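Cont'd.
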Amino acid sequence: EVQLVQSGAAVKKPGESLKISCKGSGYSFTTYWIGWVRQMPGKGLEWMGIIDPGDSDTRYSPSFQGQVTISADKSITTASLQWSSLKASDTAMYYCVRLNIAMVTFAAFDTWGQGTMVTVSS
Amino acid sequence: QSVLTQPPSVSGAPGQRVTISCTGSSSYIGAGYDVHWYQQVPGTAPKLLIYGNNNRPSGVPDRFSGSKSDTSASLAITGLQAEDEADYYCQSYDSSLSGLVFGGGTKLTVL
Protein backbone atom coordinates (compact mmCIF):
# COMPACT_ATOMS: atom_id res chain seq x y z
CA GLU A 1 0.00 0.00 0.00
CA VAL A 2 1.31 3.42 -0.99
CA GLN A 3 1.53 5.62 2.09
CA LEU A 4 2.83 8.99 3.16
CA VAL A 5 3.16 9.29 6.93
CA GLN A 6 3.85 12.72 8.37
CA SER A 7 5.41 13.81 11.63
CA GLY A 8 3.21 14.92 14.50
CA ALA A 9 1.72 18.28 15.37
CA ALA A 10 4.07 21.09 16.38
CA VAL A 11 3.56 24.12 18.61
CA LYS A 12 6.21 26.82 18.24
CA LYS A 13 6.87 30.45 19.11
CA PRO A 14 7.41 33.18 16.51
CA GLY A 15 11.03 33.27 15.36
CA GLU A 16 11.69 29.60 16.10
CA SER A 17 12.75 27.08 13.46
CA LEU A 18 10.91 23.92 12.51
CA LYS A 19 11.31 20.92 10.23
CA ILE A 20 8.42 18.57 9.55
CA SER A 21 8.75 15.28 7.71
CA CYS A 22 6.90 12.93 5.39
CA LYS A 23 7.94 9.29 5.01
CA GLY A 24 6.96 7.44 1.86
CA SER A 25 6.45 3.69 1.71
CA GLY A 26 4.97 1.05 -0.55
CA TYR A 27 6.45 2.44 -3.76
CA SER A 28 9.74 3.48 -5.37
CA PHE A 29 10.41 6.76 -3.54
CA THR A 30 12.72 8.20 -6.20
CA THR A 31 10.23 7.66 -9.05
CA TYR A 32 7.59 10.18 -7.97
CA TRP A 33 7.76 13.87 -7.13
CA ILE A 34 6.69 14.81 -3.59
CA GLY A 35 4.93 18.09 -2.87
CA TRP A 36 3.65 20.16 0.04
CA VAL A 37 0.23 21.81 0.35
CA ARG A 38 -0.82 24.35 2.97
CA GLN A 39 -4.31 24.75 4.38
CA MET A 40 -4.80 27.64 6.76
CA PRO A 41 -7.64 27.32 9.30
CA GLY A 42 -10.98 27.43 7.53
CA LYS A 43 -9.35 28.15 4.17
CA GLY A 44 -8.58 26.39 0.89
CA LEU A 45 -5.60 24.45 -0.42
CA GLU A 46 -2.39 26.17 -1.54
CA TRP A 47 0.46 24.49 -3.42
CA MET A 48 3.82 25.30 -1.83
CA GLY A 49 6.37 23.40 -3.85
CA ILE A 50 7.62 20.04 -5.07
CA ILE A 51 10.81 18.02 -5.05
CA ASP A 52 12.12 15.16 -7.16
CA PRO A 53 13.59 12.80 -4.53
CA GLY A 54 15.80 11.22 -7.17
CA ASP A 55 17.94 14.29 -7.86
CA SER A 56 16.52 16.88 -5.39
CA ASP A 57 15.31 19.14 -8.22
CA THR A 58 13.01 21.53 -6.32
CA ARG A 59 10.38 23.99 -7.50
CA TYR A 60 8.55 26.51 -5.35
CA SER A 61 5.34 28.45 -5.68
CA PRO A 62 6.23 32.16 -5.99
CA SER A 63 4.18 32.69 -2.81
CA PHE A 64 6.48 30.42 -0.80
CA GLN A 65 9.85 30.93 -2.49
CA GLY A 66 12.33 32.06 0.15
CA GLN A 67 9.89 31.39 2.98
CA VAL A 68 10.39 27.63 3.32
CA THR A 69 12.87 24.96 2.27
CA ILE A 70 11.87 21.62 0.81
CA SER A 71 14.32 18.73 0.92
CA ALA A 72 14.39 14.96 0.56
CA ASP A 73 16.60 12.13 1.78
CA LYS A 74 16.15 9.13 -0.49
CA SER A 75 18.16 6.89 1.83
CA ILE A 76 15.34 7.07 4.36
CA THR A 77 12.54 7.77 1.85
CA THR A 78 11.63 10.98 3.64
CA ALA A 79 10.81 14.47 2.41
CA SER A 80 10.90 17.51 4.66
CA LEU A 81 9.56 21.04 4.89
CA GLN A 82 11.38 23.54 7.06
CA TRP A 83 11.20 27.09 8.31
CA SER A 84 14.12 29.10 9.71
CA SER A 85 11.97 31.71 11.45
CA LEU A 86 8.28 30.97 11.96
CA LYS A 87 5.56 33.62 11.94
CA ALA A 88 2.08 33.46 13.42
CA SER A 89 0.76 33.44 9.86
CA ASP A 90 2.45 30.06 9.31
CA THR A 91 -0.20 28.48 11.53
CA ALA A 92 -1.84 25.90 9.28
CA MET A 93 -2.24 22.25 8.39
CA TYR A 94 0.49 21.05 6.04
CA TYR A 95 -0.01 18.05 3.79
CA CYS A 96 2.63 16.17 1.84
CA VAL A 97 1.46 14.72 -1.45
CA ARG A 98 2.72 12.41 -4.17
CA LEU A 99 2.44 13.43 -7.82
CA ASN A 100 1.02 10.63 -9.95
CA ILE A 101 3.19 11.15 -13.04
CA ALA A 102 6.63 12.54 -13.84
CA MET A 103 5.30 15.29 -16.12
CA VAL A 104 4.61 17.94 -13.50
CA THR A 105 2.48 20.07 -15.81
CA PHE A 106 -0.13 17.32 -16.04
CA ALA A 107 0.29 15.73 -12.61
CA ALA A 108 -2.34 15.15 -9.95
CA PHE A 109 -1.76 14.50 -6.26
CA ASP A 110 -2.73 10.85 -5.94
CA THR A 111 -1.61 10.18 -2.38
CA TRP A 112 -1.89 12.51 0.62
CA GLY A 113 -0.27 12.36 4.02
CA GLN A 114 -2.48 12.66 7.08
CA GLY A 115 -1.39 16.25 7.63
CA THR A 116 0.79 18.01 10.21
CA MET A 117 -0.77 20.85 12.19
CA VAL A 118 1.69 23.65 12.90
CA THR A 119 0.68 26.25 15.46
CA VAL A 120 2.81 29.36 15.93
CA SER A 121 1.88 31.45 18.94
CA SER A 122 3.63 33.51 21.55
CA GLN B 1 -7.57 34.90 -4.55
CA SER B 2 -7.31 31.65 -6.53
CA VAL B 3 -6.49 31.63 -10.23
CA LEU B 4 -9.09 28.89 -10.73
CA THR B 5 -12.60 30.10 -9.92
CA GLN B 6 -15.14 27.84 -8.25
CA PRO B 7 -18.55 28.68 -6.77
CA PRO B 8 -18.24 28.95 -2.96
CA SER B 9 -21.15 26.59 -2.40
CA VAL B 10 -23.64 24.29 -4.09
CA SER B 11 -26.41 22.16 -2.67
CA GLY B 12 -28.76 19.39 -3.66
CA ALA B 13 -31.20 16.88 -2.26
CA PRO B 14 -30.36 13.18 -1.95
CA GLY B 15 -30.62 11.46 -5.31
CA GLN B 16 -30.21 14.67 -7.30
CA ARG B 17 -27.41 15.68 -9.67
CA VAL B 18 -25.13 18.62 -8.96
CA THR B 19 -22.28 20.15 -10.91
CA ILE B 20 -19.32 22.22 -9.72
CA SER B 21 -17.55 24.46 -12.19
CA CYS B 22 -13.89 25.43 -12.33
CA THR B 23 -13.07 28.37 -14.57
CA GLY B 24 -9.57 29.40 -15.62
CA SER B 25 -7.73 31.30 -18.32
CA SER B 26 -5.57 30.70 -21.35
CA SER B 27 -2.48 30.17 -19.20
CA TYR B 28 -3.84 27.07 -17.53
CA ILE B 29 -7.02 25.22 -18.39
CA GLY B 30 -7.19 26.98 -21.75
CA ALA B 31 -3.58 26.06 -22.49
CA GLY B 32 -4.50 22.39 -22.54
CA TYR B 33 -3.36 21.41 -19.07
CA ASP B 34 -5.30 18.71 -17.28
CA VAL B 35 -7.76 19.44 -14.49
CA HIS B 36 -7.98 17.24 -11.41
CA TRP B 37 -10.56 17.17 -8.61
CA TYR B 38 -10.27 16.45 -4.90
CA GLN B 39 -12.80 15.76 -2.17
CA GLN B 40 -12.15 16.85 1.40
CA VAL B 41 -14.52 15.61 4.07
CA PRO B 42 -14.30 17.95 7.09
CA GLY B 43 -11.49 16.99 9.45
CA THR B 44 -9.75 14.71 6.98
CA ALA B 45 -7.06 14.98 4.31
CA PRO B 46 -8.17 15.64 0.73
CA LYS B 47 -8.58 12.66 -1.58
CA LEU B 48 -8.07 12.47 -5.35
CA LEU B 49 -11.48 12.13 -7.00
CA ILE B 50 -10.85 12.75 -10.71
CA TYR B 51 -7.52 12.98 -12.56
CA GLY B 52 -6.70 13.92 -16.12
CA ASN B 53 -10.04 15.73 -16.60
CA ASN B 54 -12.28 12.66 -16.55
CA ASN B 55 -10.54 9.63 -15.01
CA ARG B 56 -11.53 8.05 -11.71
CA PRO B 57 -8.96 6.41 -9.42
CA SER B 58 -9.77 2.90 -8.30
CA GLY B 59 -12.46 2.93 -5.64
CA VAL B 60 -14.15 6.17 -6.65
CA PRO B 61 -17.81 5.53 -7.51
CA ASP B 62 -18.94 6.19 -11.08
CA ARG B 63 -21.43 8.71 -9.67
CA PHE B 64 -18.52 11.14 -9.93
CA SER B 65 -17.47 12.35 -13.37
CA GLY B 66 -15.36 15.15 -14.78
CA SER B 67 -15.33 17.09 -18.02
CA LYS B 68 -13.32 19.90 -19.54
CA SER B 69 -13.77 22.34 -22.42
CA ASP B 70 -11.89 25.49 -23.45
CA THR B 71 -11.13 27.42 -20.27
CA SER B 72 -13.41 25.58 -17.87
CA ALA B 73 -13.95 22.20 -16.26
CA SER B 74 -16.80 20.62 -14.34
CA LEU B 75 -17.33 17.95 -11.73
CA ALA B 76 -20.69 16.21 -11.79
CA ILE B 77 -22.12 14.12 -8.97
CA THR B 78 -25.22 12.06 -9.67
CA GLY B 79 -27.38 10.18 -7.19
CA LEU B 80 -26.31 12.55 -4.42
CA GLN B 81 -25.74 10.90 -1.04
CA ALA B 82 -25.32 12.32 2.45
CA GLU B 83 -21.69 11.11 2.49
CA ASP B 84 -20.91 13.37 -0.47
CA GLU B 85 -21.17 16.42 1.77
CA ALA B 86 -17.64 17.83 1.62
CA ASP B 87 -15.42 20.49 0.10
CA TYR B 88 -14.36 19.99 -3.51
CA TYR B 89 -11.26 21.50 -5.14
CA CYS B 90 -10.11 21.64 -8.74
CA GLN B 91 -6.39 21.78 -9.58
CA SER B 92 -4.34 22.42 -12.70
CA TYR B 93 -1.04 23.90 -13.89
CA ASP B 94 -0.40 27.60 -14.50
CA SER B 95 2.25 28.28 -17.14
CA SER B 96 2.49 31.96 -16.20
CA LEU B 97 3.47 30.98 -12.62
CA SER B 98 5.26 27.79 -13.68
CA GLY B 99 3.43 26.05 -10.91
CA LEU B 100 0.47 24.01 -9.77
CA VAL B 101 -2.69 25.82 -8.74
CA PHE B 102 -5.91 25.06 -6.87
CA GLY B 103 -9.36 26.49 -7.13
CA GLY B 104 -10.78 28.20 -4.08
CA GLY B 105 -12.97 25.22 -3.21
CA THR B 106 -16.70 24.55 -3.23
CA LYS B 107 -18.70 23.41 -0.23
CA LEU B 108 -21.34 20.85 -1.16
CA THR B 109 -24.33 20.62 1.15
CA VAL B 110 -26.70 17.67 0.88
CA LEU B 111 -30.10 18.95 1.94
